UniProtKB/TrEMBL annotation:
This is Glyoxylate reductase/hydroxypyruvate reductase. It comes from Albula glossodonta (roundjaw bonefish). Pfam families: 2-Hacid_dh (PF00389), 2-Hacid_dh_C (PF02826). GO terms for cellular component: cytosol. The keyword rRNA-binding does not apply. PROSITE patterns: D_2_HYDROXYACID_DH_3. One of its GO terms (molecular function) is glyoxylate reductase (NADPH) activity. Belongs to the D-isomer specific 2-hydroxyacid dehydrogenase family. Residues 112-277 form the D-isomer specific 2-hydroxyacid dehydrogenase NAD-binding domain. InterPro entries: D-isomer_2-hydroxyacid_DH, D-isomer_2_OHA_DH_cat_dom, D-isomer_DH_CS, D-isomer_DH_NAD-bd, NAD(P)-bd_dom_sf. Signal peptide: none annotated. The lineage of its organism: Eukaryota, Metazoa, Chordata, Craniata, Vertebrata. Keywords: Oxidoreductase. Residues 5-307 form the D-isomer specific 2-hydroxyacid dehydrogenase catalytic domain.
Length: 310
């Protein structure tokens, strides 16, 4: 009898092909680009041996209970796993696969793009061109901050943080500061750019708050491509609107999507992207392959290409 697999979204076909051609499981998919409604998820996962999910699916006790005792493996199409109730999963002996490494380059690249776009005010410039606000070349218009000669502080020196730092160096960055290698206070006071690329844990939840921003230079630019909840968004709004810091670029927010009437969206010095760090065609295809292979390995009891140590 075939094992049952539930996939919570339409994913790149490279991944679906691996699952369907393996011939060991019956695959049901929430065949849409939009998230599966919670009630559908609870129904779809019932009796599943394997669950392939996304970072936008909260996999908690309720989902694990709905899945029942067959569940052997959860494979998430993401490097982050803060959406998974790890303790509950571990307690039930369920294995977890994820997608580190394969998205490092794409995410680092997007983070650099976001940093440059924010510091050099690209979205504002684009808006001015479209709206007719571009009246002349002006010496004092749309000036921002450059990387050359700057000091960059990286918070969270994992795979992605390192890859970001490597990419920033050739822009003429004078000093790269890393959290964990020096006191956070000194990193905050000395940096012209702060780049957050840590994982979301109880320790990093709300790390970037009023006190954090108050230590940054008034000319400093804040970039976050990790998880929205690392930032206290009310404190960030205050820091940006009061001139405590110069600008912020976010690829992640709380919640996602960010409501279109959110106060942060009224600020010209805040650039917000819709969580697209890993969004290149090839990276998403490779992520889908890896998560399919993780799932199959978990079903058969074999070693996964990328298993999360629980
Ligand atoms: C993206 O945020 C991921 O965790 O893969
Ligand atoms: C810029 O275009 C310059 O010529 O200085």
């Amino acid at each position: 009898q075939l094992m049952k697999v539930y996939v919570t979204r339409r994913i790149p076909q490279e991944g679906m092909k691996i699952l369907t051609e393996a011939g060991v499981c019956k695959v049901s998919v929430w065949d849409s680009d939009e998230p599966v409604p919670r009630a559908e998820l609870l129904k779809g996962v019932a009796g599943a041996h394997g669950l392939l999910c996304l970072l936008s699916d909260r996999i908690d006790t309720e989902v694990l209970d709905a899945a029942g005792p067959n569940l052997k493996v959860i494979s998430t199409l993401s490097v982050g796993f803060d959406h998974l109730a790890i303790n509950e999963i571990k307690k039930r002996g369920v294995r977890v696969g994820y997608t580190p490494d394969v998205l490092t380059d794409a995410t680092a690249e997007l983070t650099v793009a976001l940093l440059l776009a924010t510091a050099r005010r690209l979205p504002e410039g684009i808006d001015e061109v479209k709206s007719g606000g571009w009246s002349s070349w002006k010496p004092l218009w749309l000036c921002g901050y450059g990387l050359s000669g700057s000091t960059v502080g990286v918070i969270g020196l994992g795979r992605i943080g390192l890859a970001i730092a490597r990419r920033l160096k050739p822009f003429g960055v004078k000093r790269l500061l890393y959290s964990g290698r020096m006191p956070l206070d000194a990193l905050l006071t000395e940096s012209d750019f702060i780049v957050v690329s840590c994982s979301l844990t109880p320790e990093t939840q709300g790390l970037c708050n009023k006190e954090f921003f108050s230590k940054m230079k008034n000319t400093a630019v804040f970039i976050n491509s990790s998880r929205g909840s690392v930032v206290n968004q009310e404190d960030l709004y205050e820091a940006l609107s009061s001139g405590q810091i110069a600008a912020a670029g976010l690829d992640v927010t709380t919640p996602e999507p960010l409501p279109t009437d959110h106060p942060l969206l009224t600020l010209k010095n805040c650039v917000i992207l819709p969580h697209i760090g890993s969004a290149t065609y090839s990276t998403r295809g490779i992520m889908a392959e890896l998560s399919a292979n993780n799932l199959l390995a978990g079903l058969s009891g074999a070693a996964m290409p990328s298993e999360l140590a629980l």
